Each structure stands twice: as structure tokens, then as C-alpha cells.
Amino acid sequence: LVAWQKVCSTKELGGLGIKDIATQNICLLLKLVHKLHFARSSAWAQWVRSRACIASLKGDLHGEHWKVMRTILPLYQAVTTVAIGNGQHTSFWMDAWLGDDALADRFPALFSHCTKKEASVQEIVDNGLTGAFVSRLSNVASAQLQSLQELLSNATLTYQPDSRISPFIDPNGKLDTGSIYRLLKARGQAHNDQAAYIWNSKAPPRVQFFMWLLCHKRIQCRTNLLKKQIVSNALCEICSEADETPEHIIFGCTTARNFWAAIGITMTPGQSIEDSHRVPCPQGIPKQGFQTLMALACWQLWKRRNAVVFRDEGPSLNQ
286 near 279, Cβ under 8 Å? Predict the structure, then answer.
């Protein structure tokens, strides 16, 4: 009924919170990448370090598993910064070790001329920048090279291992992939005001799910059934005054209008489902429970509609 991408969004952003297995898998694989940079308690990580460069994951490591690990390494580098030590396991260009940004982002023109894009900090600091670029640099790249050399003049390495810092790393050194998952799912999505209205109510889960479908206009009303050619027309079977849209069932049908008036809730003409969370709470109804009352009222109007359509019951306001 609703696009799978929307279903897999978090509830706070208007989705259902169903786990996106592909994104979840990436987050779990990040734990392995993290373990490679905190190898003190892992024999596996020590074995990998003896066979590959941790800064780029290039080396004697083959197979689809390692290809995936290399593709998600930039994500790990994006959510961590490095307190530089010996520079052995830190990427010179892709890690944020000399300031808050990676050098590839701060000097993009110079990076485009680089021939050693996968070099570690230790390699560049020990050997210098000579031979790390193509023979001829553009004017912009030359200016950026001068700025980079000034920064490197203040960089010194020690004998201590590099240390990774991140708000996603807890005091025990473990990576909080749950927070990273929520961050990835929130990327590019706007804040959704309906979320609290739907999920923070005290209505039963089935009512909350109904309200979620209702706010997305995906309940099985006649306008939606007409699009699927299940019915021949969309006219409301109860009042025969207008097409049966989600708004008509909840706000526009005769029984619905009488119901809202009877309980003292004023609906504006043309009230939309998307703005149902903005219906003002009237005096005499506690604000704390108003969103629950709204959810249960919409649910009962939906059930009443089904009873009239499928069980031939009369449209009773008292019921």
C-alpha cells in the first residue's frame, strides 16, 4: 500500500520503522571495520593488519566480503576523526586527522592531481609530498599545495598508535551502529509533524497503524479502489453526495460531520487528512489525551463505514 522506502523510514520521520536489511547490514559491517582500528583484543584484526593496509584495506585480502568492506570504509572515515599517533593506520587524504575535515575535501583540486590517494599519514610524512602528484599542477592546485605544506610543517608523529574519536563510540570503545542506522535513514528526509501525532498516542497499535495508512491516504476507500479498477465509480455508498476519499470518510460524510459536531470538535471546510494533527483541541477535552481521542474517533468512523458497506447496517450516529 505504501512505498517500501517510506515503510522502512523511522517512525520519527513518518515511516513504520521496519528495518532496512541492506542498510542494517552496512551498519553491522562497520563494526568489523571499527574492530580493525581497535585491534588490541582481536586476533582476527591482528591477522588482517599483517596482510593489508588498514588505511585503505588494500593488500592480500580477496573476495566479495572484502570488496564490500572497502566500499563502506569511507562511511567509517566520515563518522570518525583521528587523534594522530604514528599515522600508520590513518588515510592521509580520506581521514579527518588534521582538523575537522578530510584533506581530500579541504583541497579538492590538489587531491585530483594526487597519484598516491591511498597513502597513509605515516607514508606521506616520512617520504614527503615529493612524487605524490602529477608533474604539472594547475594554479589552484599549486596554491593548495602551498597551504598543505604549511599545515604539515606543524604535524608530528609519535610512537603511539592512532586513536579514533567519534560520538558513535561509547566509553568501552564499541561502535553504536544503531545511531548510525538512524542517521543513514534520516538522510535527505524532512521532519514529519504527523509522527508524534500518530505514534505517541495511547491508542492500540492497530489503531496507530490505521492512522498511519490514513495519513498516507492508503486506506481502501472507493477512490483508491477505482484506480485499481476494482469498482466502477467512486461515489460514497452511504451519503451519495461526493466521491469516497479518505477525507470524505473521516470528515465529509454526513455521519462523520454529525459525529464531530456532536462531540464538540469543529472541523474547517475542506479539512485534509495531512493536517488532521493540527485540529485544535476544544475546551472541555484534556489536551494530553486529545490525540488519542482523535485516533480512536477516526478508527470508529472507519469501522462504522465498513459496517454500513459490508454488513448493511444503518448509519447510526448513536452507535
Answer: no
